[in-house]
Amino acid sequence: MNNLKIIRERRGLTQSQLAQLSGVSLQEIQEFEQGSLDTNQTTQLMALHKLATALSCNVNDLY
After folding, report:
1. How far is CA 27 from CA 16, 30, 54, in A?
2. Are 47 and 41 in contact (CB under 8 A)?
3. What's the half-sphere exposure (Cβ side, CA atoms, 13 Å) at 11?
């Protein structure tokens, strides 16, 4: 999920800063950016929604 990293960097945020803003753990953000997290599970979709809200974008933009 490289779009997450691109959007995060365009906003000038570190992974740690995004974790604080979104309430999503740093580990989850790292896994999303590496593409190693299964986004079909409900809890992970909720994390994506939190990330999208913190980044002022759509969940679809993160893919």
Report:
1. 9, 5, 17
2. no
3. 19
> How confident is the model at residue 14, as a pLDDT?
98
State which residues of the chain have pLDDT below 50: none
The answer to whether the beta carbons of residues 24 and 46 sit under 8 Å apart is no
Q: How much is the pLDDT for 40? A: 60
CA distance 31 to 15: 11
Q: What is the DSSP string of 9-51?
A: HHTT--HHHHHHHH---HHHHHHHHHT-S-TTSHHHHHHHHHH
The backbone torsions φ and ψ at residue 45, rounded to the nearest 5 degrees and listed phi first, read -65, -35
